[in-house]
Amino acid sequence: MADVIHAWHPDVPLVQEVLHARFEHHAYPSHTHDSWTVLLVDQGTVTYDLDRHEHQTSRSAVTLLPPQVPHDGRSATPDAPFRKRVLYLHPEWLPHTAVDAATQTPTLFNPDVTAAVDHIHSALNDPADALAAECTVLALRDLVQPHLKSPVDTASDKPLARRLRQLLDDRLEETFTIAEAAADLSAHRSHLARVFTDTYGIAPHQYVVGRRVDRARRLLLSGHSPAEAAAESGFHDQSHLTRHFRRTLGMTPGVFAA
Question: What's this model's pTM, rounded to 2 decimal places?
Fold first, then answer.
């Protein structure tokens, strides 16, 4: 079977590139990236040298490669294929002080980290889930920081959380990013998402989806079609509404309104 590569640049803040690939025989020469590389190997095992020290991936862990540090990559078993999913995240995703720690210990044996990365890839498959992908990229940062011995400031900021909630409510029908909201509120995007989650017990994108489903319910009961309800409640399209509606209420909009 030939090598298979699919790469794209999603319209999601902090995500520079996404790569899904399956290699039969390919071996990467030593190279660097200007981004943080978040690697999941779903099939096979990859051996790599990072800053002249050998490491090996694990299917139960995430590999985090820092920017500007040379690394290579090859199948741990000669002639055995490997399949991987990679996120290339902007250098500012983590502080520069985290580079040395990531170079020393690039493997993250944390099921929450693995689940978050998997969720990001799933969200990136649908442009309608861009906000969910962005929020999870920010949450992943907080999950990774303790591993890199760079603690996150967890000070409560409820007024800021309330301001974000008001902004989300006011722009429910619009497509926007946490980065844009952070600029409007003069806050750092990671801090903004974290404060909202700490205050309300729900991530910003989950709050938005819930509010949109509520609005769609009222529109459906007022006689609007599913397509009209989707458009007027801020969903990307009817299929986007149907997916979240079923996940929330256990039925499709059509069944709900019948």
Answer: 0.76
